[in-house]
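Extended Data, panel c. Modelled sequence:
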Amino acid sequence: MEPGPGAAGSAGSAGSGNGRWAATACVVTGASRGFGRSLARLLAPRLGPGSVLVLLARSAGPLMELAAELRGDGGTGLRVLCVAADLGSEDGLRRATAALREVLPAEPFGRLILVNNAGSLGDISKSFLDLTDPDEINTYFAFNVTSALCLTSTALQAFGKRPGCSRTVVNISSLCALKPFKSWALYCSGKASRDMMFQVLALEEPDVRVLNYAPGPLDTDMQLLARTETGDLEMRQYFQSLQEGRKLIDCTVSAQKLVKLLEEDTFQSGAHLDFYEV
């Protein structure tokens, strides 16, 4: 999720010549709704023969509905797998990482794409001084930071370094990674942490393509929470003005920009790119 406007060399795309990528292992977290669901719908038809799309989220029902839709669209033979797991719990994270260890080494994929989209706002009704419960804080970071690190490291290890293959990791970021917002201490610090974490990955693993993509102020349930539950009145009114002024962005529109960035594959690894910049 993105609060609002005003944000501040290729490894090879393994293309197939027909507008689709050659055999690709693609993983999208938070795929059951919102931006993740829209992105999965755009990525699926670009995944060529022999590809697998792993959809990961807490809600099994919406995941299965999306998987059925994508399997029946185009007859490409794309394998679509659902992993219903709560990434904020140890059991759920173990189940998700186990699935990646099983799937990713299994086929001769030419490309890995991992999109870390899953995330939450936290209790935005609270100010900084209200955040005194360590369990609440640790639970937030377990879901929003720890799970992204563990999933990414597991996926890269499981896929391995393969001659002629490319590996791309996307972190769905936010303006909040760069700019503080009142009442949003957890969200801002979580997004900033993830951005820096993936910058370290880009530095350590120069053959991995890493992108922090801020999708803009999306028209989602999270924006509804922002304009109804944000504790700071001025910030709540700001979010309300985005909705009233029709400045919220459709998830598919933003996802199309991300797909274009992946197709062109010319971004600097580790970069933070905003919807309004591309």
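DSSP finds eight helices and seven strands in the chain. This feature is highlighted in the accompanying rendering.
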